[in-house]
What we know:
82% of the residues lie in helices and 0% in strands.
Amino acid sequence: MPATDPLCIVKRLLLDRLIFAPGFLLIFYFVMNILEAKGWRDFESKIRGSYWTALKMNWKVWTPFQFVNINFVPVEFRVLFANMVALFWYAYLASVRK
Length: 98
């Protein structure tokens, strides 16, 4: 998205929060299910039981960090910035999935 677009900041954030976040969280649940060698029924029950809670928490936690990361952190430091937040985020996800 070109930086000259007046709503560029909002569009970038909405794209990340509404498209990428739900998809990547679903992929996380799916991969963890495969690694634990559990069946499809267990995957469905995990999705029904904790996906929506985890997604809402994702939006609460990551939105301010992603706003700063996308719009103010220099490109060469964005991965480092996101990884620092992700360290705590994945600890949270591990506790929610149990």
